[in-house]
Amino acid sequence: MVYLSGRNVEALKVSLADSLNVYDVLLADRIVVTPRALEKIQEIYGD
Predict the structure, then answer these.
(1) pLDDT digits over 1-46, tens only?
(2) Which H or E element spans position 43?
(3) Which of 5, 15, 24, 44 is deepest in the core (most CB within 10 A)?
(4) b or e along 31-46 (b: 16 or more beta carbons within 10 Å of the residue's beta carbon)?
(5) Cα(46)–Cα(23) distance, integer angstroms
């Protein structure tokens, strides 16, 4: 649902937790993440 809504917001990048890359994270001014997505990100990239 967030992905579909996010497509309408200019300058917003929506990524799935398992396809997130470090470059996008470093360039971001703000990051909004669900608790479940944060768990997945920590699983992939470590604590």
Answers:
(1) 667 777 788 888 888 888 888 898 899 999 989 899 999 989 988 8
(2) helix 35-45
(3) 15
(4) eeeeeebeeebeeeee
(5) 16
